[in-house]
Design goal:
Blueprint (H helix, E strand, L loop, with lengths): L5 E6 L3 H12 L4 E5 L5 H6 L1 H21 L12 H25 L3 E4 L2 E5 L2 E4 L2 E10 L3 E3 L13 H4 L8 E5 L3 H12 L3 E5 L11 H13 L3 E3 L4 E7 L2 E6 L4 E4 L1 E4 L3 E3 L32 E3 L10 H16 L13 E3 L5 E5 L2 H7 L2 E8 L3 H5 L5 E8 L5 E7 L3 H13 L4 H6 L24
Parallel strand pairs: 1-2, 1-6, 2-3, 6-16, 8-9, 8-14, 9-10
Antiparallel strand pairs: 4-5, 5-6, 7-15, 11-12, 12-13, 17-18, 18-21, 19-20, 20-21
Helix pairs in contact: 1-4, 1-8, 3-4, 3-6
NADPH dihydro-nicotinamide-adenine-dinucleotide phosphate (NDP) binds next to helix 6 and strand 17.
């Protein structure tokens, strides 16, 4: 008679939880995954996937304009927001089915409901208790909204993905990933967008030239960026919102979206009661093998607040399952994790920003800014920026940054090069593919003189 009902109970069926559960199931473990919402989690249901579908929908607006320069004659394009949202929702339903099927095929039991730890081996779901040898917490994160009068009128990205109508005037608080992505979606579809950022620049943590270039490009598209500004209050009058800024002036909006970060979902899970330690940001503290302060309890993904990206959570989940259910100990390497922002134009990067590199290296910088070939005919006023940060002593490429069309697709390949420790000489020895934007990364010959330290 086994001591526990399951070998593994996972709380949270998002990217990390599903990958860990499926793999553990495949390796013969008896697994249950507890999920209070939809299987698929943030990425599939409320994040990456629906957002990217809306981005795909929005960028047609740019393509229609571009086409004119290539001889097309197009009538007035009309967009049906409701149709886009319905199509997106249909795809999410399909994906949820796929995820459920994959779990079932791996022998994993999906337990609907909210799981709370009753003791280190027991999870309670709506009064029902199940026990597990190992417990994996993969509950992800949740949007946080600043505290000001009227904050109840403000929506998060969760609701923005499901608005019944496209708002004509949108105020977006924040300048991070989610803010600039939604700014691009609404702007392309014809809304007036105001981004309210509390500092002078977007995308904190990204390379300075990326932040500056993106800011310029968003402004060229008509997005208003209110820098060094915060929202003091939001008041609802009739069907519209009056947004008052710290400067005292106000504006009317049809929708106010807060994209001001996400917090680890660690509340009311019974974590502290069973001895799981949280850090100052209330994220679960784990070691290199994803183990918490309680020997049989593990955690992966955004709930641990390491690098909050879906592919990172998936890899953490995979490594947890390989280590504990396949006797192949693995640890995640958090260096050179590439990331992308699906703004318009998009951003993608791998490795160190110039500022981060300068902390420990002498650097050479290579930067190019150009108008993509397509836009010589389309007339689109958009410039691409590409930048390499190179270690002056070892010649290793430390960082690769791009703002421009297809940046996420291009940087993925360069991430392999950085992971392999490529040098600038090896970049130079690589023959470019012509005519592309990507070839610029292997034809950058002259370092930026004034920063040649
Ligand atoms: P981010 O941390 O990226 O950005 C938060 C923004 O809100 C920053 O500009 C920040 O300003 C600002 N902010 C924070 N608190 C306040 C406040 N009290 N008042 C005013 N402004 C504030 O968070 P997001 O919500 O955009 O995204 C959450 C996470 O989701 C990201 O960190 C990322 O890990 C993930 N994500 C990834 C995507 C991708 O890979 N493409 C897409 C979307 C999300 P400041 O810079 O001054 O701190």
């Amino acid at each position: 008679m086994p001591q526990y009902d399951y070998d593994l109970i996972t709380i949270g069926a998002g990217s990390g939880g599903v990958r860990a559960s499926r793999l553990a199931g495949k390796y013969g473990a008896k697994v249950a995954v507890v999920e209070s919402s939809r299987v698929g989690g943030t990425c599939v249901m409320r994040g990456c996937v629906p957002k990217k579908l809306l981005v795909y929908g929005a960028v047609f607006a740019n393509h229609f304009n571009d086409a004119l320069g290539f001889g097309w004659r197009i009538g007035e394009p009309m967009h049906d927001w409701g149709k886009l949202i319905a199509a997106k929702n249909k795809e999410l339903d399909r994906l949820e089915g796929v995820y459920n099927r994959m779990l079932r095929d791996s022998g994993v039991t999906v337990v609907p409901g909210r799981g709370v730890l009753a003791d280190p081996h027991t999870v309670e779901i709506g009064g029902k208790r199940i026990t597990g040898d190992k417990i994996l917490i993969a509950t992800g994160g949740w949007p946080v909204t600043p505290d000001f009068p009227g904050k109840e009128h403000v929506i998060s990205s969760n609701e923005a993905l499901d608005l019944p109508e496209r708002p004509e005037r949108v105020v977006i608080i924040g300048g991070g990933y989610i803010a600039v992505e939604f700014a691009g979606i609404f702007n392309a579809l014809g809304s007036e967008v105001t981004l309210v950022i509390r500092t002078g620049h977007l995308l904190r943590g990204f390379d300075q030239d990326v932040c500056a270039t993106l800011g310029e490009e968003l402004e060229k598209k008509g997005i208003i960026i209110r820098r060094d500004c915060t929202v003091r209050s939001v008041e609802k009058t009739g069907g519209v919102y009056s947004v008052v800024f710290d400067t005292g002036d106000e504006m009317i909006a049809d929708c106010v979206l807060a994209a001001t970060g996400r917090a680890p979902a660690t509340s009311n899970l019974g974590l502290e009661q069973v001895g799981v330690k949280l850090n100052a940001k209330r994220a679960i503290s784990v070691d290199g093998q994803n183990r918490t302060s309680v020997e049989n309890i593990f955690a992966v993904g955004d709930v641990t607040d390491r690098i909050n990206l879906t592919p990172v959570a998936i890899n953490e989940g995979r490594m947890f399952a390989e280590t504990f259910f396949n006797k192949r100990p693995m640890q995640m390497d958090y260096t050179n994790v590439a990331s992308a922002v699906f703004s318009q134009p998009p951003v993608a990067c791998v490795g160190l920003s110039e500022a981060d590199a300068r902390r420990n290296h002498r650097v050479r910088l290579f930067i190019t800014r150009f108008r993509a070939m397509k836009h010589t005919l389309s007339g689109r006023d958009e410039r691409t920026m590409m930048k390499l940060v190179v270690d002056k002593d070892t010649d290793k490429v430390l960082g690769c940054h791009m703002v421009g069309e297809d940046a996420p697709e291009i940087i993925q390949g360069f991430a392999v090069a950085l992971k392999a420790g490529a040098t600038k000489a090896q970049f130079d020895a690589t023959v470019g593919i012509h005519p592309t934007a990507a070839e610029e990364f292997v034809t950058l010959r002259d370092p930026v003189p004034e920063t040649d330290t």
